[in-house]
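ok so i was messing around last nite and threw this chain in just to see what happens. nothing serious, just curious
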Amino acid sequence: MEHVRVDYNGVPTPLSHVASISASGTNLLIIQPLDPNIINAIEKAILKSNLGLTPSSDGHLVRLVVPPLSEERREELTKMVKKMLEEQKIVVRNIRRDALEDLKKQEKAKEISQDDLRRGETKLQKVTDNFVSMIDGVGAAKEAELKQV
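result:
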């Protein structure tokens, strides 16, 4: 729901800024607008967001029933998780590359020795490997959670 933008006085505003969102049970979200006059705008924004959820309101609250995940949707979400994981690994590798360039510049400027450069490269690789394994662990846990019925 954090990406849903509501047209509030002509300005696209995040849903969380114009309403409180709470969970009631495992498959029901309740949205209580701070201004009751924007319930229709909230419903339109949710429908427009392509979340696959149909809002229902009673004039004071908007209720969203979240259906159980189908096998197809689980596979789709697993692919999305894998894509996000790869993006995060690329970020870690880019940080490693930048840090390695800094180390080489320091060695070229004679600020550090070749031995210090090698030690720095080794430490940098260990830290990178540690973060990549953390990303993989989070990804494996999320994939297991998605496959659980």
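not much to say yet. The chain has two domains: 5-65, 71-147.
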